[in-house]
Write a structure and sequence with these properties.
Layout lengths: L4 E2 L2 E2 L2 E6 L2 E5 L2 E5 L3 E6 L2 E12 L2 E6 L2 E12 L4 E4 L2 E20 L3 E19 L3 E19 L7 E18 L4 E4 L2 E3 L3
Parallel strand pairs: 3-6, 4-7, 5-7, 6-8, 7-9, 8-10, 9-11, 10-11, 11-12, 12-13, 13-14, 14-15
Antiparallel strand pairs: 1-2, 15-16
Length: 192
């Protein structure tokens, strides 16, 4: 499935949502060739019991939207699994396996509050830039290049708090720029 293109109107998602409220329950997305499997713009989107597999681009690309996820599994994602620009992401029970870039990428004052995450074979577990605020309770990373990346050039800086952080086969636990705040299991990490 690819993006919509008709009479010079084009969307980025196999499913695009714009200024709407939507609930997806027991959905399966597979063999997606669009830029994004799910593209959400200035909307409210709730996802329950969803499966995503073999997505060429991003799994979920959200712009200034409120996203709630309860139970989602994804495998073989070609770019970022979840990309959030502004807005809010909440939820629990998210499993991401074989993601080419970031498991979760947040920017532009986005707020994230998640629990019970499992990432395996991901380039970057969580990538945060700009002033974003991330809180995660119970995250497990396995066979990941970089667990956490934080880029925060100008104040106010990004903040991230991970409780119940568990990592195995990690090449680099974290990489943060000066000014960004990262706490893992109660301990503040130093920028380098």
């Amino acid at each position: 499935l690819g993006q919509f293109d008709l009479h010079n109107i084009q969307t980025d998602g196999a499913l695009s949502i714009y200024k709407s409220k939507i609930e997806l329950d027991f959905c399966q997305f597979s063999d997606i060739n669009a830029k994004d499997a799910l593209n959400v713009v200035m909307s409210q989107c709730s996802i329950y019991n969803a499966t995503f597999e073999r997505c060429k681009g991003d799994l979920l690309d959200s712009y200034f939207s409120n996203i709630f996820i309860k139970s989602m599994e994804a495998t073989r994602i070609g770019k970022d699994a979840i990309e959030l620009s502004g807005g809010m992401l909440t939820g629990n029970h998210i499993s991401l396996i074989n993601v080419l870039r970031s498991g979760i990428r947040v920017s532009e004052s986005a707020k994230v509050n998640l629990a019970d995450l499992y990432f395996r074979e991901v380039e970057s577990g969580i990538y945060s830039s700009g002033y974003s605020n991330v809180y995660i309770n119970r995250i497990s990373l396995n066979n990941v290049e970089r667990g956490i990346e934080m880029v925060s050039d100008n104040p106010p800086h990004a903040e991230m708090n991970l409780v119940g952080f568990n990592a195995k086969n990690l090449k680099q636990e974290y990489m943060i720029q000066q000014g960004a705040v990262l706490k893992i299991n109660g301990y503040r990490k130093k920028a380098f």
